[in-house]
Write a structure and sequence with these properties.
alpha/beta; SDR_fam; Rossmann fold; oxidoreductase activity; 7-stranded parallel β-sheet; single chain; oxidoreductase; NAD(P)-bd_dom_sf; NAD(P)-dependent dehydrogenase, short-chain alcohol dehydrogenase family
């Protein structure tokens, strides 16, 4: 991550920030001096733990419940975070879900959930954030390396949703250039979290595609996000950064 204090005075919002990659991102931004709001769905206890950690660092932090499947929930969380912490400088669209299986066996409810969380909430949450974000801000979205290369069957729906973020990010960068707000997409590969543990049943197959031969960590992804959020990311926009240990090489 960048130097301590490089984000002092900034306000950040990380969606899905109660655990895994989102919690790591929140911690990295807090250590850099930003005040950090996080959203969560059901893990109120984990969200409280993250807030406590950030508060102990000497920054302000709040947690807002915002189920991304509920339309308008993320938008409302953006407004709440900005009101409580005083504006917004960094939005990290991290919240996401996965649904796997053949297209022929995929139900409408799964399609709706994927679109609502992985696409709609990102779009509407970003739209809300732009109403309160200061010029020179950052929009950073977490996608997946599966948007670039489909490594196994059963990924069509999930890949569709993550591929949409590529076009959204590039278009957003053009829209926001006049305000000096950057927009970038970070695409993790196999990352050791409770959703995809490095000792899980599918780990061996995933490791077989890695150039480095091991899973990434949530901190690997968070460090990239923190760089984009800080001074080093000022001239990076409309870009896709893949953090996958060479899985897609």
């Amino acid at each position: 991550m960048g130097e301590r204090g490089q984000l002092a005075g900034a306000v950040a919002l990380v969606t899905g920030g109660s655990r895994g990659i989102g919690a790591a991102i929140a911690r990295h931004l807090g250590r850099a001096g930003a005040d950090v709001a996080i959203t969560y769905n059901t893990a109120a206890d984990l969200a409280s733990d993250v807030v406590a950690e950030l508060t102990a660092l000497g920054v302000r932090s709040v947690a807002v419940r915002a189920p991304a499947t509920e339309r308008g929930a993320v938008d409302a969380a953006v407004r709440t975070a900005a009101a409580e912490l005083g504006g917004l400088d960094v939005l990290v669209n991290n919240a996401g879900i996965a649904r796997y299986g053949p297209v022929a066996d995929t139900g409408d409810e799964d399609v709706d959930d994927i679109i609502d969380v992985n696409i709609r909430a990102v779009f509407t949450g970003t739209r809300a954030a732009l109403g309160v974000m200061r010029d020179g801000g950052r929009v950073i979205t977490i996608g997946s390396n599966l948007a670039d290369r489909v490594s196994s069957p059963g990924l069509a729906l999930y890949t569709m949703s993550k591929s949409a973020l590529v076009g959204f990010t590039r278009g957003l960068a053009r829209d926001l250039g006049p305000r000096r707000i950057t927009a970038n997409l970070v695409q993790p590969g196999s990352t050791d979290t409770d959703m995809n543990p490095a000792d899980g049943p599918g780990a061996a197959a995933q490791l077989g595609t890695s150039a480095l031969g091991h899973y990434g960590t949530a901190d690997d992804v968070a460090a990239t996000v923190a760089h984009l959020a800080g001074p080093g990311g000022a001239h990076i926009t409309g870009t896709v950064l893949t953090v996958d240990g060479g899985q897609n090489t």
